[in-house]
Amino acid sequence: MSNEINKYTQDHQFASASPADDEIDLRELFSVIWKGKWLIIAITAVFAVGSVIFALMLPNTYKSEALLAPASEEQGGGLSALAGQFGGLASMAGINLAAGGGVDKTQLAIEVMRSRQFTSQFIQNHNILPDLMAGERWDMTTNMVVYDDEIYIPKTKSWVREVKAPFKPEPSMQEAYKEFSEVFKVNFSKDTGMVTISIEHLSPSIAQQWVTWLIEDINKVMKERDVAEAIRSSEFLNKQIALTNVADIRSILYKLIEEQAKTIMFAEVRDEYVFKTIDPALIPEKKVGPKRALICILGTFFGALCAIGIVFIRSFIQNVNVVNKA
């Protein structure tokens, strides 16, 4: 019985002592912080000043964007009609009229724009590699990009950056694609079906020019792809007509050739082949970055955390030394 009483007393003593220990620990923590307040203030101030200087050194960036609508695919209706009228006979001949019915040209065009091949051709065709990879800041008075002379010299048009193998002074298309993907955004709205293309750059005029070029190039590329495919299809169909004597199958093949001719004609008379421009890209007047206030706040906060950590580590080391001496 006495053992149970002693155990009960010890448990209650331990439980009542825990809050006191916690309170003492909190007091010690605040005491350590208060003793090192000047060090905390000094380190935080250094980080605050450093973040302000860093934020001010960052160049402004501008974003230009355009709103596009998918162009109506008028040439698609003919193939759908053929599929309903001659679907049975076409299947007997081994021809699938509905094969391309489910293709979404808008999504295809978006993925083409995001592809490495399209991006590489875009960079090379418009010679934008220096503006993409070597720009340092934008001179508002001259409306010119100032290049980093440690990377690119515009007078001689030579690349002088120092890199390790397998990289070369002139950036490769893989490097350029990675950099371009960071400044180029294309978004498709499922609710409205609209497409937004945007470019962010040091120069507002360059951002606007690139968006305009992107729209022109993607319409041109998609047009050339469809025209080339229609020409190949027409050549194949003409060969098939020469090989068959079945009147119904020949009728289907002639209809298919007619549809391919409509595709070519539709492409030739229409510049905005895949995307129609609803709201064209403008030269932006306001910057979108950097967010200097946020950079300063985060830098100051990080400095305060580092300072508190240093104070605690210093206090812990001092206590260990005192214990060792004792």
UniProtKB/TrEMBL annotation:
Outline the extent of the Tyrosine-protein kinase G-rich domain.
276-315
Membrane topology (UniProt) = Multi-pass membrane protein
Q: Which domain of life is it from?
A: Bacteria
Residue span(s) of domain Polysaccharide chain length determinant N-terminal: 22-125
- Tell me if Cell membrane is a UniProt keyword of this record: yes
Q: Where are the transmembrane segments?
A: 38-58, 293-317
User: Where is the signal peptide, in residue numbers?
Assistant: none
Cellular localization per UniProt:
Cell membrane
Q: Which Pfam families match?
A: GNVR (PF13807), Wzz (PF02706)
The record's section on InterPro entries has: Bact_polysacc_biosynth/exp, GNVR, LPS_length_determ_N
Keywords per UniProt:
Cell membrane, Membrane, Transmembrane, Transmembrane helix
| PANTHER family noted in UniProt | FERRIC ENTEROBACTIN TRANSPORT PROTEIN FEPE, TYROSINE-PROTEIN KINASE
Name assigned to this protein: LPS O-antigen length regulator
Q: Which organism is it from?
A: Shewanella schlegeliana
